Amino acid sequence: MDTYNSSINKLTDELSRLPGIGQHTAQRLAFYLISQPRERVQSLSEALINARDNVRYCRECMNLTDSEQCPVCSDGKRDHSIIMVVENPRDLAAYERTGRYRGVYHVLHGTISPMMGTGPSDIRLKELMERISREDIAEVIIATNSSLEGETTAMYISRLVKPAGVRCTRIASGVPVGGDLENIDEVTLLRALEGRKEL
Amino acid sequence: MDTYNSSINKLTDELSRLPGIGQHTAQRLAFYLISQPRERVQSLSEALINARDNVRYCRECMNLTDSEQCPVCSDGKRDHSIIMVVENPRDLAAYERTGRYRGVYHVLHGTISPMMGTGPSDIRLKELMERISREDIAEVIIATNSSLEGETTAMYISRLVKPAGVRCTRIASGVPVGGDLENIDEVTLLRALEGRKEL
Questions:
Q1: Could you tell me if A48 and A145 lie in one domain?
Q2: Inter-chain touch A48–B44, beta carbons under 8 Å
Q3: Which candidate in B1, B2, B7 is best for mutational testing of the A interface (most A CBs within 10 A)?
Q4: Which of A52, A76, B100, B135 has CA 20 to 30 A from A15's CA?
Q5: What average pLDDT score do residues A41-58 get?
Q6: CB B51 to CB A34 under 8 A?
């Protein structure tokens, strides 16, 4: 489709290669963008390059950061003896949004998944074990997803952490708060039943 | 949320200002982008600036283009005596995708809308009338949307074009091909009834 010209087509092409952005949305975004003030487009364009160039892994927890240490690890008011293990930086962000967790994190950047062919050496597990042996850790909270891969990974990690004499816990899975039972999948319902607590 | 660092936050902010992109999608896209090869991010970044800087209006039809004339207007094999009037370049693109329309276009870049306070002087109507008086036009096909604004605009244009002695037509509105009657709104159903044809 060379209805307009090469530069709109090029932009539409580039945008349509982003995940979840189809040809139609890409075209709509392209038209929106060329109608914006140049400063705004420049600003987005620079933000892209800056983020790509400046982001690296935190040397402690493997979270993404601009500096040596991520904001969580460099925060002296956090409890550095409690490590929450998450699959990726988005999961870390989700727990940070609660504003209640006061420990630190470890980002695995993946899961152990025989199906996808990813093993323990494909995730940032070595770095976690190094932290545990190097620092004085009281508890490791495993907050991988409640999926097959997440559970497999949690199990694997617990078998490494417990022999090191460190308390190892798993976040609860069950019925989400505010969820309507009739809309919740069977596996979650069974998990909630198994995990029931004395009142 | 300064969970990561300023450059990811900046990128997420910029992305979330795009239409239809919420905070969540923006974050997902930002993480995706920083995980991509630098060349790809660079390519998107440059496509943004290039499109913003190079795109202008076609001097004939007001379509968006990189050059003086858009690809449709500069195509000698098109019938330049038939002008299809559309609201915006996306509508032009939609007709071009059919691959069957052989005339040229005129892009209004808006509609006459008393509700939104846009009048005839806010759209590219003067340029259309100049084309009609300057060139030898056989037919003007009004392909504005079948909305209140689109119909108002169509009516207004027909009252200018017809006195100039030029044939003026309107694209049909009715039930979309492949559409299921039970899912189609009442206005469209009534329009299809009114526009019924002898078999």
A1: no
A2: yes
A3: B7
A4: B100
A5: 93
A6: yes
Look at residue B63 and tell me whether its pLDDT is greater than 90.
yes
| Contact with chain B for residue A31, Cβ under 8 A | yes
Please state the pTM of the whole predicted model: 0.72
Token digits for A58?
């935190």
Q: Which residue in B29, B38, B46, B52 has the most chain A C-beta atoms within 10 A of its own C-beta, making it the best mutation to test that interface?
A: B52
Q: Which of B5, B48, B63 has the CB atom closest to A66's CB atom?
A: B5
Domain annotation covers residue B81: yes
Q: Look at the block and give the residue holding tokens 């008086």.
A: B133
Q: Residue A31 sits in a domain of what CATH number?
A: 1.10.8.420
| A23 min Cα distance to partner chain B (Å) | 12
Q: How far is A127 from chain B (nearest CA, A)?
A: 19
Q: Is residue A69 part of a domain?
A: no
Determine whether the interchain pair A7/B92 forms a contact, defined as Cβ–Cβ distance below 8 Å. Answer: no
Number of structural domains found in chain A: 2
The length of chain B in residues reads 199
- For B195, other C-beta atoms within 10 Å of its C-beta total 11
Looking at the structure, do residues A40 and A94 belong to the same domain, yes or no? no
Domain that holds residue B178: 75-198
Contact map slice: B 84-103 vs A, CB within 8 A: 88-90, 92-93, 96-97
In a domain, A70, yes or no: no
Cβ contacts of A49 on chain B, cutoff 8 Å: 41-42, 45
Q: Residue B62 domain-assigned? A: no
In a shared domain, residues B135 and B183? yes
Do B15 and B84 fall within a single domain?
A: no
DSSP state of A118: B
Task: Decide if A11 and B47 are in contact by the 8 Å CB cutoff.
Answer: yes
| ipTM entry | 0.73
Note the pLDDT tens digit of each residue in A76-100. 999 999 999 999 998 898 888 888 8
Does residue B182 share a domain with residue B93? yes
